[in-house]
UniProtKB/TrEMBL annotation:
Coiled coil regions, renumbered to chain: none
Protein name: Late embryogenesis abundant protein LEA-2 subgroup domain-containing protein
Cited SUPFAM superfamilies: LEA14-like
Pfam family, one: LEA_2
Segments forming domain Late embryogenesis abundant protein LEA-2 subgroup: 46-123
The species this protein was found in: Lysobacter capsici AZ78
InterPro entries xref list: LEA_2
Length: 154
């Protein structure tokens, strides 16, 4: 009995020394909201998601936005934003979209229809106490008109 107790105590002490697991996972980016301004430009809210078990600083991103098959423009920002473990935050980017993209959004808004989009590019992030890394992002989803909010897609 004494040997079992001693073995259990040693196992418990050994498990205390390892600490929490530091897992670095690829982040994700998606459009949380797209607002069409009266002058035709857009405010695009990009949601950056940190799936790591440690904080990460998101230094910059450069993402190509497509609506359907049409290039809409380049979403670029240098937020210098720290996001905690398994959390997310939003960065607003102003964009002057292509003519085809303006027409696609106007058509979707007027018809109350959703519109497929894709993001492709790089996010440059620094895991807590480490070197900066480049993560390649490819995301496809859809935006739909926000009820009661004219000119807003979510």
């Amino acid at each position: 009995m004494r040997m079992v107790g001693l073995t259990t105590m040693v196992a418990l002490l050994a498990s205390c020394g390892t600490g929490p697991v530091r897992r670095v996972s690829e982040p994700a980016a998606r459009i949380q909201q797209l607002t069409v301004h009266a002058n035709g430009s857009w405010a695009v809210e990009v949601r950056i998601e940190n799936f790591s078990s440690i904080p990460m600083r998101f230094d910059r991103f450069d993402l190509q936005l497509k609506l359907g098959e049409d290039a809409a423009g380049q979403l670029q920002a240098q937020p210098g934003l720290s996001i905690g473990p398994e959390s997310a935050d939003v960065v607003k980017v102003e964009l002057t979209p292509s003519g085809a993209a303006k027409l696609a959004i106007a058509d979707a808004l007027s018809g109350g229809r959703s519109l497929n989009y894709s993001l492709k590019g790089d996010i440059f992030a620094t895991p807590d106490e480490a070197k900066q890394r480049t993560y390649t992002i490819e995301r496809s989803s859809a935006l739909s008109p926000a009820p009661g909010l004219p000119g807003v897609m979510r």
